[in-house]
Amino acid sequence: MKYLLIICLIVIVFLVMKIVAMRLSIKELREDYEEKARLHTNTVLTVSSRDKEILKLASSLNKTVVKLRNSYNRYENGDQEIRSAITNISHDLRTPLTAISGYLELADRQEKSPEMEKYLSIIRGRTEYMKKLTEELFEYSIITGGEITEEKQDVNISKMLEDCIMNYYPALKARGIEPVIDITEEKIVRYLYPTYVERIINNLFSNALKYSDGDLEISLSGDGKLRFANSASNLSSVDVNKLFDRFFTVENARSSSTGLGLSIVKIFAERMNCSVHADYADGRIIIEVGF
Fold this sequence. Notes:
The relative contact order is 0.07. This protein has helices at 2-39, 52-108, 114-143, 157-174, 194-211, 237-240, 261-271; strands at residues 153-156, 180-183, 189-192, 217-220, 225-231, 275-281, 284-290. The mean pLDDT is 79. By secondary structure, the chain is an alpha+beta fold. The chain is 60% helix and 13% strand. β4 (217-220) and β5 (225-231) form a beta hairpin. The chain contains 7 helices and 7 strands; from the N terminus they run αααβαββαββααββ. The protein has a 5-stranded mixed sheet. It has a two-stranded antiparallel ribbon with strand order 1-3.
C-alpha cells in the first residue's frame, strides 16, 4: 500500500509538471505570436518545448501565419499598385482636361447659335465634373497612402468653422439654404493637423449642399462636438450607414458626386483619433465629428 501511494504521488507530480510545462509552452507561443503580429516580421514562431503535440501546434500555427502573411503582402502590394495607378491616371488626365477647358473658353468668345450654346454648356459641366473627379481621385490615392506632410499644432476649431461658414454662405444661399448656426462662445482649440480639420469641415459643407432638402443646422459644442444636420428625403437608414464607404453615392447624386467626400472625412478623423458618426432619423441626416 505504501509503495502504491508513492507511485501515485510520483505520477501526480509528473502530471503536474507536465501540465505546468505545457502551460508555459502555450504562453510562450502566444507571446511570440503577438510579437510577430505586432512587428510584421518574416520569422516564424518558436517554442522551447519538446512535447510532440506542442511542436505540432507550433507547426500548424506557423503554416497559418505564413499563409496570412503572404495574403497580407499580396493585399498590400495590390493596394499600393491600385493607388499608384489611380495617381498616375489622375495626373495624366489633368493635361487634356486643362486643354479642353481652354478651348471651351475660346469657344465662348465666338458667335454661336442657342443650340450650340446648349451643347457647350453640357460639355463645360461634364468637363468640370471630370476635373473634380480626377482631383479627388488623386487626393484620395495620396491620402490612403498614409503620408502626413504637416506637423500637428493648436487649431482653433471655432475660428476655422466660422471662416468656412463665410466661404460657403453664397453657395448655401444659392441653394435656398439659410443655415441655423449654434457655435459655443468658448474657444475650442485642439492639437491637430490644420489641413485635415479644414478639409473635414469643407467636406461636411459639400455633403450638406449635396443632400439637403433646403435646411441646415450647424453646431459646435463646448466639448468639441461638431454637428451637421439637415433634411435629406433621398437618403435612408441603409444609405447613411454606407456614406463613409469609398465611392458610395445614392442614386440621384451619381451625376454630381464622386463618393469620396465623407470617406475622406472618416480617414482624416481616424488619423487624428477623432470620432465620426452618422445617423438618419425622421428624414434627417446627422453627422457628428468629435474633435
